[in-house]
Amino acid sequence: MEDAILSQFDSEYIFYQLFEPETSTYTYLLGDKETKEAIILDPVLETVDRDLKLVQELGLKLSFVIDTHVHADHITAAAEIRHRTGAKTAISSAAMLECVNIHLQDNQELQFGLQKIKAISTPGHTNSCMSFLFHDMLFTGDSLMIRSAGRTDFQQGSSALLYESVHNKLFCFPDWIKVYPGHDYRGQTVSTIGLEKKFNERLGSGKSKEEFCEIMANLKLALPKKIHMAVPANLMCGKPPV
Amino acid sequence: MEDAILSQFDSEYIFYQLFEPETSTYTYLLGDKETKEAIILDPVLETVDRDLKLVQELGLKLSFVIDTHVHADHITAAAEIRHRTGAKTAISSAAMLECVNIHLQDNQELQFGLQKIKAISTPGHTNSCMSFLFHDMLFTGDSLMIRSAGRTDFQQGSSALLYESVHNKLFCFPDWIKVYPGHDYRGQTVSTIGLEKKFNERLGSGKSKEEFCEIMANLKLALPKKIHMAVPANLMCGKPPV
């Protein structure tokens, strides 16, 4: 029956997008159809039961829990998933987290079964943001978002650096590469590099680095509601500080 | 540039899933890559600007607006999209709506460009519900939902009929057919026939028709907030009654 379940996938891998509505966060589950090894990207503490139920229903075994960065708006489920499944936690080495098992370097690949996912350093939203390439999909975290970009006004954020990360790294991928962001606040689920180069209101459509920096400097956003709880917790892989 | 934008799709068709958070409704945009003709399924009045912007960015032309049924929780954007784009509106003939251009029959196909979508009558949640088959995807509206089923306590709903529709029609598709529902309240975006047959808590996992009817009779749900506004409006294709 497990094979019938997984036979749904016309490719050799499994892909699920999941949404956490309170903070509009996307979590991604990626698996290897052959060996059933899997990874989860940016899981949220509040939806960990839902996500682990799906992992179990699909007959998967989690090898890694990856965070694209130290989130400020929600608490990661990384430590909780490690505790419950034995999966190793991974985040950019630039985050300098003692709690994490794998300190990812730029261009490092993680293998699960016959599949590989590649980490790409894209700082700017925070100083330790990474994007991840898997087949024709880019998981861009809060760096490149659909027609938008992650804010750059805390956690060592830098508009100039974010512009360079997106233009010199992400926009160098082919137009047909799919973009799966860490959040979307308008109910959009996916984009492509081609669409973002042409229509992204902050980073694309011919905007210069100076124009981007000016846009970002004038956003005047309120701080994320949970930042004072989320950042300290996420610096401990999602365990609330004692 | 338009061709670069559409070259993203490794198949001959375009597929976008969009989410309306207030009523947790999914809208689907399907297009023919060759001719740029497209259809939109279950659009919501509140998100019509977002959806038509995407249609325009992709260089598509809408041929049809389809509703899976007369919705009780939100107002359809069908009339508004017809007004703004010239697309024809379509819904089951069983809904007996005077406002609609195409009264769909069971197994009727609608052609847009080189693509076809097939209507499949699946009454039960309402008496005029249809599901739609497009390539390996089933758009199940409020009939079969992820690990769940549409309620059956108004609009001529019938638990027995819904069970028959799902078991005698939808569950006859291969396990690998993807299921895209009309709503999801838990942040899930997609399932498969195989997963639902095995794990659907109401309709699958060996539940008999009698067990399903008992589950549905005991849900004791409050009426949808907007039902008294949405149903009269949707009986006019989404124009609020004067």
Structure, explained:
Two copies of one chain form a homodimer. Chain A is of the alpha/beta class. Chain A has a single domain (about 1-220), classed as Ribonuclease Z/Hydroxyacylglutathione hydrolase-like (Metallo-beta-lactamase, Chain A). The first copy, chain A, has seven helices and 14 strands. Chain A has helices spanning about 1-5, 50-55, 80-85, 160-170, 195-200, 210-215, 225-235, and strands at about 15-20, 25-30, 35-40, 60-65, 90, 100-105, 110, 115-120, 130-135, 135-140, 145, 150, 180, 190. In chain A, the strands form three sheets. Chain A has a six-stranded mixed β-sheet with strand order 1-2-3-4-5-6, covered by helices on one side. A six-stranded mixed β-sheet of chain A has the order 7-8-9-10-13-14. A two-stranded antiparallel ribbon of chain A has the order 11-12. In chain A, strand 11 and strand 12 (about 150) form a beta hairpin. The mean pLDDT of chain A is about 95.
Give the arrangement of secondary structure elements.
The structure is a homodimer.
Chain A: H1 2-6, E1 13-20, E2 25-32, E3 37-41, H2 48-57, E4 61-66, H3 78-85, E5 88-92, E6 102-104, E7 109-112, E8 115-121, E9 130-134, E10 137-141, E11 144-145, E12 148-149, H4 159-168, E13 178-181, E14 191-192, H5 193-199, H6 209-217, H7 227-234
Parallel strand pairs in A: 3-4, 4-5, 5-6, 10-13
Antiparallel strand pairs in A: 1-2, 2-3, 7-8, 8-9, 9-10, 11-12, 13-14
Helix pairs in contact in A: 4-6
- Count helical runs of chain A: 7
Average pLDDT of chain A, rounded to a whole number, is 94
The number of strands of chain A is 14
Low-confidence stretches of chain A: none
Largest sheet of chain A: 6 strands, mixed
Oligomeric state of this protein: homodimer
User: Could you say which structural class the secondary elements and strand pairing of chain A correspond to?
Assistant: alpha/beta
**What is the CA-based Rg of chain A, rounded?**
17 Å
> How widely separated are the two ends of chain A?
44 Å
What pair of chains forms the biggest interface? Answer: A-B, 34 and 34 residues
Q: Note the overall shape of chain A.
A: globular
SSE run of chain A: HEEEHEHEEEEEEEEHEEHHH
Strands side by side in the biggest sheet of chain A: 1-2-3-4-5-6
Helical content band of chain A: 10-25%
Q: Give the DSSP E fraction of chain A (strand runs of 2 or more residues).
A: 25-35%
CATH fold naming of chain A: Metallo-beta-lactamase, Chain A
How many discrete structural domains of chain A?
1
Task: Give the second-level CATH assignment, the architecture of chain A.
Answer: 4-Layer Sandwich
- Say which CATH homologous superfamily of chain A is assigned: Ribonuclease Z/Hydroxyacylglutathione hydrolase-like
